[in-house]
Design a protein that fits this description.
binds adenosine-5'-triphosphate; binds magnesium ion
Length: 250
């Protein structure tokens, strides 16, 4: 066993440094993010809450390398993705980052299993192994029996669970989920959160955007955004009281 003194302090999987994002210019300029600092460590699940338009999706797409900040840095596993070339960024997105979109984004011409296997195949995993992993990920979502269906042959909730399987397949270290429970009934929503929680307990870092206090309660920390800035943060121990307070306001 190594002595504590020889252990490195844990490095965050995701680090956002003084992040800003301005959409548009001139009269239509929108300051979607105004100086966000955030670090998410291995094993941690962070919930992001805030009113509609407060910048939650903007924060998540930039953290996942799908959009670029106006200024500031995004560091994923020691790589500054704002400075990375396209190839490095694409490889990082396939290997390290799992992303669940607000509106699923499945490829209509591919079956559920093919959708889930795609990022693995793009990354050089053999088709057979990628399919095996995809089926396992679908089974985790109780969707093994729908592996060969196309998205338009599934309900909204089933499609959302396929999208979640696609984000969790392989060994992604950073899982970003934008309202992943939106199309799910509350029981299925809870089971999706349990899976996300389990993935974080196994060492991944997770960021979950949600409007629902009961889903945010699965997180270690809740970050509240308003007008593109962090206005409050909780520790897990305070989360329940804060969330109860918030829920009571609704
Ligand atoms: N492509 C864009 N062009 C111009 N403005 C944008 C664009 N995307 C987002 N915005 C603006 O940036 C702000 C933040 O939007 P964002 O989508 O991040 O909010 P959100 O917190 O995810 O909201 P919701 O809860 O409704 O999903 C909003 O004022 C929005 O109108
Ligand atoms: Mg959004």
């Amino acid at each position: 066993m190594s002595s504590p003194s020889s252990q490195q302090p844990p490095q965050p999987v995701l680090r956002l440094k003084n992040l800003t994002r301005v959409h548009g210019s001139g009269a239509t300029e929108v300051h979607a993010l105004r100086g966000i600092d955030l670090a998410v460590f291995p094993g941690e699940l962070v919930a992001v809450m805030g009113p509609s338009g407060s910048g939650k999706s903007t924060l998540l797409t930039i953290a996942g390398g799908l959009d670029s900040p106006t200024s500031g840095q995004v560091i994923v596993e020691n790589t500054d993705i704002t400075a990375a070339d396209r190839k490095t960024l694409a490889a990082l997105r396939r290997r390290s980052i799992g992303y669940v979109f607000q509106d699923y984004n499945l490829i209509p011409a591919l079956t559920a299993a093919e959708n889930v296997a795609l990022p693995r195949e793009l990354d050089g995993t053999s088709a057979r192994k990628a399919r095996r992993e995809a089926i396992a990920a679908l089974e985790e979502m109780d969707l093994g029996h729908l592996a060969d269906r196309f998205p338009d042959e599934m309900s909204g909730g089933q499609q959302q669970r396929v999208a979640i399987a696609r984000a969790l397949v392989g060994d992604r270290r950073l899982v970003l989920a934008d309202e992943p429970t939106g199309a799910l009934d509350s029981e299925t929503g809870e089971s999706v959160l349990a899976l996300l929680r389990a993935r974080c307990d196994a060492g991944a870092a997770g960021v979950l955007v949600t409007h629902e206090p009961r889903f945010a309660a699965w997180a270690d920390r809740v970050v509240f955004l308003r007008d593109g800035a962090v206005v409050d943060q909780t520790l897990r121990s305070d989360a329940d009281s804060l969330l109860t307070g918030q829920a009571a306001e609704r």
